[in-house]
Each structure stands twice: as C-alpha cells, then as structure tokens.
Write a structure and sequence with these properties.
heterodimer; A: about 180 residues; 2 domains; five-stranded antiparallel sheet; B: Rossmann fold; 23 helices; about 35% helix
C-alpha cells in the first residue's frame, strides 16, 4: 500500500491534556504530523482537531481507531483530499521598498488572489488562502524575485462534502441513550 | 439571611474516602507519603470500613491491586503519594493496561499553587501515565473529587476494563467541600459496550454453520464479560474445539471435552497446528498477540476468520478478519448460539489426538513424569495442582515458571490463573498473589516464581508477614534467569550473558519474616513437603531446586509460523 496524505478529523470534549492524548498515538508509531489545527467546533464545548499525515490506509485506519477509543474523544474519522474541501492560510512579510520596486501591487493581488493585512514604510504583510501547493508556489516565487522576510502557514482546515457532520448523528444517538438510561 | 441552611462541609480527603466507599471499595493497597498525607489522615478514621494494606513498595501495591481485581472482578484500588511513588506505580499501571485489568490508582500531587514549579516530589503524573491508562485526570479542587472518582470507577470497570489514574493535589485534599455523590453511568464521549449488530451475528452464524473444521480461540474477554457459561453453550451446540490464550486460561475447565489446550509460543502442539488447518477460526475476546500468532504472514491463511471483541480498535489490528462481531461476549455469544445448527465435528476433533500424543511422548512425559534425574518444573507444578484438587488460584511471575505453570496447572474454575501476560513483568508474582488472596480469601493461592523474579519484589514478604496473607509461594530455582538462558542456548550459541545467579538462602529470608518454608532438591521429598505446605492457611515458601538447564517446550521461535514448533530432545 502506498503512502498518501490523509486528513484526520477528531471531535473531543474540551479537557486538559487532550492534545497529548492524541499526539502520543502518532509518536508511538513514529508517524509525523504534517499539519495540525485545533479550534472550538460549531457545537459549544466540543473541540475539533484537523490533522494531516502521510500514511497507508491500513495505518491511518488503525490510528483513527486508537484515537476514537480514548474516553474523551467523541468521534474520529479520516478522509482523503477527494472527500474534502480544504484550505490553509499563509502570511508573507515583504520589505515595502522591494515590493514597490519589483511589482505593481495590483498585479500581485490579481495573480495570487491575496489580501494586504498591513502596510507601512518598512514592510507589507500579505495573506493568501489556498492549498499547500498554491501557498508554497507563491512563497517560492516571491523568495526568488523580491525576497520574503517572514513566512508562516497554518495547518489545514477542512470540511467534508457530505451533508451533515458525522458528529451530529453520534450526539443525537448518545442523547437518546442518556434519556433512556434516566427513565 | 436567606439560605441559612448550609450543608456540612467535609475535607477533600474525607470526600475522597467517602467516594471510594460509595463505589463499594473495601480494600486499598497503598503507601503513605507527603502529598497524600491528608488522605491517609482521613483514612485513619475509616479502619472499620476500609482495609488498607501497607505494601513495601508502590509497585507492589499496583500488582496487588491487579491480583485482587483479576480474581474478584472488582476494581483494584491503590493509594500512593506523588513523585517517586507515582513513578514506582507506573509498571503496575502499564501492566493493567496491557492486560485490561480494572484499577484505580490515586496519586497524591503537590498543592495546586505549586503545580509546574518543579516542587519537591512533583512530577507530571497525568502526562506520564496517559499512554498507559484508559483515563488519567488531575484533581485540582475539592469540588471535582466526587465527580472524578465516580467517573474513574465507571471507566475502569466498564467496557474493556483498564487502569485509571487520579492525581489529586494536596490542596484539594485539605479544601472543604459539600459532599454529594452521584455514581456515573454515562459519559457522552464513551461507549463502553457497543450495540450488537444483527448482520454481524447472522454472518458469523452462517460461517460457523457452514464450517467443517471450526476452531475457537478463547481470550480473557470471555472472563471479563463473565461469559464462561455462554462460551460453553456456544461451543457445545456446534461442537467446536477451542483453545485458550494465556489470559484466557481457566475460562474453560481443563476437563471440558472441547478444551484443546494452550495457544502460542509455549502452548500445546495441537491447537497451534490446527490454527493452520481449520476452515473457520473464531476468536473470542482475544487480540491476536504476537506470542499467539507468530508470523502473521502464515497465520491461519486458509481459514475464514470471525473476531468477537468489545474493542473495535482490535478488529483488523493484527489479523484481517472476514466477520467482526462487536460487543460483549455476554451478549454476542448467545446471539450467535441461537442461530447455530446443532452439529457434530467428531472426525475433525479426533484429528487433534495425533498431536496430543506426539506432545505427550516428546515433551510432557519427560517434564511431568520423570523417573530419574533432577527435579523438573513441570512435575512440581503438576503435583501441586493435584494436591490442591486443581482448585487453587495460580499466580505466576514471568518467564519459564510462568509458562510451566500455565501449561501444567489444571483448572476447574474460572479466574484461576493470574499472570502478567502483555507486559511480562518480572516481580509481578508475590504482590499479585497477595492481592489475589485478599480478593478470594476462601481459595488457596499458589505463587510460582523463578529465583530471578522473586528477588524483584522480595520486600513484599514484609507485607505478607504483617497481614498474615496465607499464600503458598513456590520458587522454581534453577539458579538462572531461565527463559533468557533458554533463548541464549537456542538462539545465541549458548553465550550465557549475565543469566547465572548466585542466590541467597531464600528460606532463611522467609524465616526472618516469620514465614515458614523449606528447600528441597530430591524427588522423594516432594509429596511430603507439598502436603506440609498446604496443611494450613498460613504463608509458606517452598524452594525447589530444579534442573539448571530446563527448557520450556514446545516452542515456536519468535516470529516463526505457528506450525514451526520445536519439541526439544
């Protein structure tokens, strides 16, 4: 089986030490985390982790089961890029004089679909959202032409193409189970 | 003033003990120290309700709690302090994790204000224990105590059991709190017993009904689910021969007609060979450990495989299966049995005999019934098993003694072998046997150890003396780290690198602890000494000097195919 990029989505209760519980599952199997993004989800009190790794499907399936097994994890699943709409965001800091020398700013905005977040006498901060390849290409091109003072890229955020989040079904089932137990 | 009526407040320490009492805890294994002192102080007033056993080392406390849990099915409880006490407890926690033993370990922690300052005896217990616990939680305020204890016990005992660590800050123990205990039976993010899927049940039943040569592998899942009777009904209805993993030992009585013996590296020949001959392999509450499967590339390739397990993460982990049946064996086994045709597989079952005879002739006869030469481990274990009418709880240490005890003890009731299977912890034997005796005081508890493992937790003789725990300890003394020596002989050109041991006078040590004992080397002394050992319910140490270069056969070399069995000679 060949290595592919998989996106793992994890929903968890918001408790201390959860990130460690998840990362040790990768550490133990010597799997590098390519990107990681954590934030509160659409549902109050539930956190969402988006993790990308290069692995075979066999490995990613086992890892996801181990994550899902942890008591504080609500749901974990994995997708390939085909199942997802996803983005990363990148920031580029460029010297203002270099930028003004080399390029028309309008041309740059048109070419890369960027936004300017801040501009002053010494530097400009550009923002670009896109897939890894796109933000990387812009970084390389700017580095070669006018130079990039600082560059940072976020982890991936992703949304599945299916209609509802799988978590919703689980939460509904659990609610029903809890109500039945109370009766 | 409104709300004049306030509930009486109690200390966090007292709330902790009250919580344990609510969970039905009667026995605690522990060791006091700085950060847990307020709780030990509270415990002082509860001596009528809680029996605290002071072990001689925190590792001993954890293994004792494991032994207690394994024989009783209850949650084992440990109470220790912070820092070194917590790190000492780690081995037992890891052992309980790998062997799915329900256990709650409470560790003291420095005061909440000191957390993260490298305070005296502060370590990150939660961080260290996360990879080896089902759940680990730090209690920083007294308000959390009742909630956390309820949750800890629910998690430890439900579903696939396991260890839970509660790390309680000293400040939380002294804080005052309104105590209000609510047991936990629901956690939104945790589904301990998955619902049965009827398709999985009927798929499994169909495969079994079509099988000409079915074969079942029985693991500890059956015992943890209390599904021994359901297992028997299942096997009998479809006439399925079955074998057991190390932790599945005693789930079926030795005498049971369909019990075909022990699986794996030092298991019996027939069940290992038949794994690669059967047409439908039914794994029940076992996890295809490498000590059972050997080389996965050649493991049961001819068979359709059905895997019954409560833990979805075990499915397709090591062996790809054709039908997975998720759920507790208590429910899945009877559900499948209801759809099974009553059948007979006499011819298939008869084919096991050839290998049984071969193993008897080449291995068992020499090991269990030698007439000349030095004493062997197998004959000692066999004799003691007979002298206890096969009713005793057998606790082992790790190594040759463990494999021999598993092989040559006979079992007449469930929960009769307590051994460190997954982690293989030397030093497990003595403390686990203490816990087993506390958990099943009416039963005889035997503890087999080698001369190596015995010295790893030898300090627990002090606990045995203090509490008068009537376990029968047997050292099978070959003056070697026997299993390592066996590997050196077989795979390392007899280069006995640091496996020879010069040993103390074990009986003299026992005597110093006021424990009676005897050392023997002659076959003629065996029966009488065993009878002496078993005549009362007092602790006893029997040291048997056995052949120095004894080997555990059969053996499937690590990574070898299950059919590649070495019988010795």
């Amino acid at each position: 089986m060949e290595n592919k990029l998989y996106t793992i989505t994890v929903f968890s209760e918001n408790t201390v030490g959860l990130l460690n519980q998840i990362t040790i599952i990768f550490t133990r199997r010597a799997i590098n985390i390519e990107t990681l993004s954590v934030s509160p989800s659409a549902i109050k009190g539930i956190h969402k982790f988006t993790i990308t790794i290069f692995a075979t499907e066999d490995v990613v399936e086992k890892v996801v089961k181990q994550i899902d097994k942890r008591v504080d994890i609500l749901k974990a699943y994995y997708n390939t890029d085909d199942d997802l709409i996803y983005q990363e965001i990148a920031l580029y800091k460029i010297a203002t004089d270099k930028l003004l020398q080399q390029e028309s700013i309008e041309g740059l905005i048109r070419k890369y679909h960027i936004r300017i977040l801040e501009m002053n006498e010494s530097f400009v901060v550009l923002q670009k959202a896109g897939h890894y390849e796109e933000t990387q290409q812009m970084f390389e091109e700017l580095s070669d032409s006018i130079g990039v003072l600082q560059f940072i890229r976020s982890g991936r955020v992703a949304i599945t193409r299916s209609k509802v989040e799988r978590l919703t079904d689980m939460l509904n089932a659990r609610k029903k189970h809890e109500t039945e137990q109370l009766k | 003033m409104k709300n004049m009526e306030t509930k009486t407040k109690i200390s966090g320490a007292k709330a902790l003990i009250e919580s344990l009492i609510h969970e039905g805890v009667e026995t605690i294994f522990g060791y006091p120290g700085g950060a847990i002192m307020p709780t030990f102080d509270a415990l002082y007033d509860y001596d009528k309700k809680i029996n605290h056993i002071l072990t001689r080392h925190e590792q001993g406390a954890t293994h004792a709690a494991q032994g207690y849990a394994r024989v009783s099915g209850k949650v084992g409880v440990c109470l220790v302090t912070s820092g070194p006490a917590a790190t000492n407890a780690i081995t037992g926690i890891a052992d309980a994790m790998l062997d799915s033993t329900p256990m709650v370990v409470i560790t003291g922690q420095v005061g909440a204000a000191l957390l993260g300052t490298d305070a005296f005896q502060e370590i990150d217990v939660v961080g260290i224990s996360q990879p080896i616990t089902k759940w680990a939680y730090q209690i920083r305020k007294a308000d959390d105590i009742a909630w956390a204890v309820a949750r800890a016990f629910y998690i430890a005992r439900s579903g696939r059991p396991g260890p839970v660590v509660l790390d309680i800050a000293k400040s939380a123990q002294v804080q005052e709190v309104e105590f209000n205990y609510k047991p936990c039976n629901f956690i939104r993010s945790y589904i301990p017993i998955p619902e049965i899927n009827p398709t999985q049940i009927s798929d499994a039943a169909k495969l079994i009904n079509g099988a000409k040569k079915p074969f079942a592998l029985v693991g500890q899942g059956v015992v943890l689910a209390n599904a021994e009777a359901e297992l028997k009904a299942f096997l009998e209805k479809a006439d399925i021969p079955a074998a057991w993993t190390l932790l599945g030992a005693s789930a079926m009585p030795t005498e049971f007609r369909l019990n075909k013996g022990f699986l794996g590296m030092h298991g019996n020949v027939a069940p290992n060979m038949k794994t690669n001959e059967c047409d439908v392999l039914i794994a029940i509450g076992m996890r295809f450990d490498d000590r059972v499967t050997g080389d996965l590339a050649t493991y049961a390739k001819q068979a359709k495989i059905i895997h019954l397990d409560i833990d979805i993460a075990e499915i397709n982990k090591n062996v790809m299966v054709d039908v997975a049946v998720i759920g507790t064996a208590k429910e899945t086994l009877p559900a499948i049995t209801a759809q099974l045709n009553t059948s007979k597989h006499t011819e298939w079952i008869d084919t096991f005999k050839e290998f049984e005879t071969e193993e008897y002739d080449k291995v068992i006869k020499r090991e269990v019934f030698p007439e000349t030469g030095e004493l062997t481990m197998g004959e000692v274990i066999h004799k003691i098993s007979e002298a206890t009418q096969n009713k005793a709880i057998v606790v082992t240490d790790v190594g040759q003694n463990q494999m021999m005890a598993a092989r040559y003890s006979n079992y007449s009731q469930t929960r009769s072998l307590v051994t460190s299977g997954g982690l293989g912890t030397m030093g497990f034997g003595i403390p686990a046997a203490m816990g087993a005796k506390m958990g099943a005081p009416e039963r005889t508890v035997l503890m087999y150890s080698g001369d190596g493992g015995f010295q790893m937790t030898i300090q627990e003789l002090g606990t045995i003396m203090q509490e008068q725990i009537g376990i029968k300890m047997i050292i099978l003394n070959n003056h070697f780290l026997g299993m390592v020596r066996q590997w050196q002989e077989m795979f390392f050109e007899e280069r006995y690198s640091f496996t020879k041991m010069k040993n103390p006078d074990f009986v003299a040590i026992a005597k110093a602890y006021n424990i009676d004992g005897k050392e023997i080397s002659e076959r003629s002394d065996l029966d009488k000494t065993i009878a002496d050992m078993l005549k009362d319910d007092k602790p006893y140490l029997l040291v048997v000097n056995v052949e120095m270069k004894g080997m555990v056969y059969p053996m499937i070399p690590a990574g070898g195919s299950v059919t590649n069995i070495i019988l010795g000679e």
